[in-house]
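Task card 7
Instruction: Convert sequence to structure tokens.
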Amino acid sequence: FGETQYDSFGDPALNPDGSFHEENIIGLEGLIGVDLIWHITAKQHFSISNYFYPSMTNGGEFRNLININWVHSLDWFEGLAVKFGIRNEYDTSEKNPNEFNYNFSMLWGF
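Output:
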């Protein structure tokens, strides 16, 4: 499925031979996943999810996405909570396959 690329002026980008530059993204992935939630107390819970995406078109390639979160509801304000999370995406098709992200968030539920 071709998609024409454009430069910063909005003109179609050209290859050195004068043809239009197209980025072809063709791929089919499967999905296997699991979500687990542990309600530690009425005010806090721990969750972990793991999703595995094997490539159906490129043998041996896959992506693996892991999310780990801890959420604690605060007593002094109804609906306010703090969340600490870790996310890792491992992609065998990338030059640097591991991508770790850490986050700390304030949540407001309504």
